[in-house]
Specification:
about 500 residues, alpha/beta, Udp-n-acetylmuramoylalanyl-d-glutamate--2,6- Diaminopimelate Ligase, Chain: A, domain 1, UDP-N-acetylmuramoyl-L-alanine:D-glutamate ligase, Protein-Tyrosine Phosphatase, Chain A, six-stranded mixed sheet
């Protein structure tokens, strides 16, 4: 591709410029990724302009630099005269479309399903990949094929990376892509240039208010997914308190599908529902109502909220044209996901669940579900991440002290915050109900390994333990350093030790 072909819609005089026909072989936002023939794209970041790294990009062989003149971009570009320097206003908004053009619009050649919401995005993306042939994944656990995922730095990668990944998935002959779409990714334009076939809204509850400020702003960011061109259908959780606002924002030409575990229906929606939910030692069972038919479903998953996730995925399959009988048959393929209500222990040991729950709503649902498997006491080990929404910390403390018999507050990822300050903010919620707790014993054990070991040493075989907040993560982040750590590994090591 030439610079003229890449930029013709955004740079008015590009076709007559002396470098219009210069060939380009790659795009990069990070100067360290630049190779000979690559274009370096310098965005006006919130902390630093990409032009601060222009010398490294030049030394690595960049053939041209596209930069945002905002901030100090123009002044940083003034001294560079020996390679093409192209200023593009509001470059952050446009880079996704440029990348889509460079990679020949891969999303238009596949069915991309965008999954957004506060909780359940990863479960839905993984379940869809388990149930659909030739389905790729982009999300929290990585990108690629189900059992061979490559790491991503964010739930929704940057705009360039998304298009590169989509191109690779297309080259791998994927027909469908289940893509987690975060509120940050939507607000920052990372999905610009992606053609979505469908959208799934799992649920909306408090999260990322450190970034969005208000729930209204958070919701509006989520609703941006509905504005993507070419969207054919949307799947909505009718039980969610924001479902009416989501449906009201759906464009007229987009088909609406709804699902419910509370018997809710809505005119103008194709609806499915689940009822008679039963929690067993083997997982969950429920009656699935679809197209006038009833089916009894048994799945090796735990937690009532996983019924919602399964219903979202089943309904999506109907929306993309999979026959009901085939969709029912494929539900049998669903398997548990690492760090999402992951069951450990049992058979003489306490039943233990490891879950990524790091929001008030997620923690509430996980503990409510775990309680149904408890014959004696419910224990919870959890903390809150540093440099994130501080307002949710006392809320999660209140939920833990109301739901559990024993709540152990520990460190999560303190990042650059004082870990004890985070613990004390959680504790404020625990003691806010009448300034006393009579039904729950709250303890502080900041060392997460020791907290888990302490609970395992004291819990009886008939108790249930939830270790929440980190799920699949294999690290703890303290003062910018990531240390190897895994809730599941700590638990399994301790169980092996106690069982000889």
């Amino acid at each position: 591709m030439t610079l003229k072909e890449l930029l013709k819609d955004w740079v008015s005089n590009i076709e007559t410029s002396e470098f219009a026909n210069n060939p380009i072989v790659g795009l990069a936002l990070n100067s360290r990724d630049i190779k000979e023939g690559y274009v370096f794209i310098a965005l006006a970041g919130s902390k630093q302009h990409g032009m601060a790294y222009v010398d490294q990009a030049i030394n690595n062989g960049t053939c041209a630099i596209i930069y945002d003149p905002a901030g100090n971009g123009s002044s940083l570009a003034e001294h560079i005269t020996h390679i093409p320097m192209i200023a593009v206003d509001e470059l952050t908004e446009k880079i996704g479309y440029m990348a889509a053009r460079f990679y020949k619009n891969p999303s238009k050649q596949m069915n991309v399903i965008g999954i957004t919401g506060t909780n359940g995005k990863t479960s839905c993306s993984q379940f869809l990949s388990q149930m659909l042939d030739d389905c790729g994944i982009i999300g929290t656990l990585g990108w690629g094929e189900l059992n061979n995922l490559q790491k991503t730095h964010n739930t929704t990668p940057d705009a360039l990376e998304i298009q590169r990944i989509l191109a690779e998935l297309l080259n791998a002959q994927k027909k469908v892509v289940a893509m987690e779409v975060s509120s940050h990714g939507l607000d920052q334009g990372r999905i610009n240039g992606v053609a979505f076939k469908g959208a799934i809204y799992t649920n909306i509850s408090r999260d990322h208010l450190d970034y969005h400020g208000t729930m209204e702003a958070y919701l509006q960011a989520k609703l941006l997914l509905l504005n993507t061109p070419g969207l054919a259908f949307v799947v909505v959780n009718l039980d969610d308190e924001f479902s009416n606002q989501i449906i009201a924002a759906v464009p007229e030409n987009v088909e609406i599908w709804g699902h419910s575990v509370k018997g809710k229906k809505r005119l103008g929606c194709s609806c499915t529902s689940a009822e008679n939910i039963l929690n067993t030692n083997e997982g969950i069972e429920f009656d699935l109502n679809s197209l006038g038919n009833k089916h009894r479903i048994k799945i090796p998953l735990y937690g009532d909220f996983n019924v919602e996730n399964v219903m979202a995925v089943f309904t999506t399959m109907l929306a993309i044209g999979v026959a009901e009988s085939e969709a029912i048959k494929r539900l049998a393929n669903i398997k548990p996901i690492t760090g999402r209500m992951e069951r450990l222990g049992g058979q003489g040991d306490p039943l233990i669940f490891v879950d990524y729950a790091h929001t008030p709503d997620a923690l509430d649902k996980v503990l409510a579900s775990a309680k149904k498997h408890c014959t004696q006491a419910l224990w919870v080990v959890f903390g809150c991440g540093g440099d994130r929404d501080k307002g949710k910390r006392p809320q999660m403390g209140r939920i833990a002290s109301e739901r559990a018999n024993h709540a152990i507050i520990t460190d999560d990822n303190p990042r650059f915050e004082n870990a004890l300050d985070i613990v004390n903010q959680i504790l404020k919620g625990c003691v806010s109900v009448g300034d006393s707790i009579t039904h729950c014993k709250v303890e502080i054990i900041q060392n997460r390994t020791q907290a888990i070991q302490s609970v395992l040493a004291r819990a009886s075989a008939k108790d249930c333990i939830v270790v929440a907040g980190k799920g699949h993560e294999h690290y703890q982040e303290v003062n910018g350093v990531r240390f190897d750590f895994s809730d599941s590994l700590v638990i399994n090591d301790e169980l092996r030790t106690r069982n000889g």
